[in-house]
Specification:
single chain, about 45 residues, mainly alpha, two-stranded parallel ribbon, 2 helices, globular
Length: about 45
Amino acid sequence: MVYRAGPHCNRADRAAARLARLGRPVKKMIGGKIGWLDEAFQLATS
């Protein structure tokens, strides 16, 4: 997963495109970590 925290961040978009070219599944979550949590997805911690 890649995420972006602001409207001017294009690094997440570039990373997602690169992962997709490598055959990895990609989901673009607008809203960053807060958007992820709002959708009831869990965060992994270590």
